[in-house]
Amino acid sequence: MKNFQYMLALLVLLLFSNHVIGQKIKSVNQNSKTKDSTEVKHEKDSSYVSLNLSYISDAVFLGRKDSVAMPYLYASAMYHHKSGIYGMGSLSYITKANESRVDLFLASLGYDFSYNNFDGDISITKYFFNEDSYNVISQVSADVTVVLSYDFQYFNLAATAANYFNNNSTSDFFLSTEVSHDFITRNQKFQISPSVGLYFGSQNFYQEYYTNRGSSGQGQGQGQGGTVNSTSGYNITVEESETFNIMAIEFGLPVWYEAEPFIFMFYPTYVIPQSPSRLIVDDVVYEEDLDPTLYFVLGVSLKI
Length: 304
Fold this sequence. Notes:
304 residues, mainly beta, Porin, twelve-stranded antiparallel β-barrel, 18 strands
């Protein structure tokens, strides 16, 4: 039985990877929304409220980020009904000097479920960015996300499909796979779950980010494109932004510690961006220079 599970997991991963690598799909919408990192599995026999306060060292999305760091302090509240239906709201406050402001408010409605070792989550999220935001997804208005995972005892396999809707009516489709393993102490108080993930998608969100920030001159920076960082007032195009490519490889090492009623979390992530964009700035072509990024989330949550 165990051999069958290992073979099945490997087959699913290979089939998924072969299906998306090199495939070109026009932006159809994508949502790879990730829930609060401090969220853990709770008993399904009761409803609860979860409050969370976290700090993230930089706003990174699929290896993409602004040339100027965007550290956030964000607070969220979630009501989870025992049926699996939940609602969540979150405020993100940028803590950078001379930039202190609420940069993002988001609201989510979703449904999660479990059956033996199988878990699923379906959600829709609405984003409200500050007009001065220079977050790389600041032109995203909403997303729809489906997450499926299976616990194979010695490792976990998860797949995510998401559709992101941009302000200009374009959209991006994203797919990802992640493999992780849980190390949990006997008293169930401490957990560490190293993971590796592959992320695929299109880049219409990036086109809109460059267009909005470059043409308006808003924000503090402009992507990671080196010489294209100072393009305010110029015409900017991300070449083949609708092409579906591998976007990033991520290595995570989330750590949880439970001291009831609190859960403390530290989540460092090392992301290696893939498929750098070719930017056309007033007919001049630039190859984007994407560097690996190490960032982290530090947080605490309370279940009521």
